[in-house]
Amino acid sequence: MSRKKLIAANWKMYKTPDETKRFFADFLPLVSAHDRDEMVVCPPFVDLHVALECVRGERIGIGAQNLYWKSEGAFTGEVSSAMLVALGCTHVIIGHSERRQYFGETDDTVNLKLKAALEHGLTPIVCVGEVLEEREAGLTEDVLRRQCVRAFHALSARKAEALVIAYEPVWAIGTGKTATPKIASEAHILIRGEAAKAFGEQFASQLRILYGGSVKPENSSALMAEPEIDGALVGGASLDPKSFAAIVKY
Ligand code: PEP
To answer: Is the CB–ligand 1 distance for residue 179 below 6 Å?
Structure first.
């Protein structure tokens, strides 16, 4: 069955509210006639409000880069899924490798965040992927299996309906090294297999699995041509309106 591709921008910790306004002023005219795929931009928390105003009436969703799994409480510095929904966000990135690497996120916190996002009606983009040492040691399959099994724990196909996965080999993030379409496809097939075990074949056949890791205008067409690749999660190249527009229009 055909899956609508999703092209998502992860701005990481870049851009102020003014820079966000400038980005959309340049970006929107470049993609105004483009409705082939779904588009989402995930800026830092402080830019969400401005970003939502900029895309009002446009076919672009706005997502956060993280959330906390409790709805509210004494959790200084955290932001809940309920808050993101109240603001108008539709998507959220969960378990990005930079959060796993620098901020202590684990497969278990990814599971808690995923459940919270789904309960509040957000579309979660759950990131999985192996580091270079794991790939070189032949552990890619084990790592991806473990990340999927733990992320999907105690979820049903009905609850997980909105789930999106991003396969992001950590060695390809921000390094300029891109996984070949073949490497990405192999990982996507494995992830889809894990989704089938957890949620059934029907669910797995509809699950969107994005590729992320140094996606650029020059390599986006080849990656997006792979039947197993259902879109892209784009970091560095999404910060420039022209380059992100070129990727969206691969
Ligand atoms: C990312 O931040 O999710 C990412 C894939 O980054 P980059 O495109 O810069 O490799």
So the answer is: no
Which atom of ligand 1 lies at the shortest distance from residue 166's CA?
Answer: 3
Question: Is 234:215 a contact under the CB 8 Å cutoff?
Answer: yes
CATH number at residue 202: 3.20.20.70
Quote the pTM value.
0.97
Residue located nearest, by CA, to atom 7 of ligand 1: 235
Residue 1 in domain: no
Instruction: Tell me the pLDDT tens digit for each residue of 117-158.
Output: 999 999 999 999 999 999 999 999 999 999 999 999 999 999
pLDDT in tens, 80-90: 999 999 999 99
Query: Is residue 219 one of the residues assigned to a domain?
Result: yes
With a 6 Å cutoff on the Cβ, whether 235 touches ligand 1 is yes
Would residue 96 show up in a list of annotated catalytic residues for this protein?
yes
Cα gap 127→148, rounded to integer Å:
10
What is the rounded CA–CA span in Å between residue 129 and residue 143? 7
